[in-house]
Amino acid sequence: SQMRLFPSPRTQKDASESPLSLMEYIVHIQGLSHDGQGIARLTDPGHPQQEREIVCFVQHALPTQIVRAKVTAKRRSFWQAETVEILDAGQTVSPFCPHGQTCGGCPLQALPYPEQLFAKQTILASALTRIGHLPQTLLDERMHTILPSPKTEHYRNKMEFAFGKDAKGACILGQRMAKSARVVSTPHCLLMPALS
Question: What confidence tier does 45 reach under pLDDT thresholds 50, 70, 90?
Answer without folding.
Answer: low
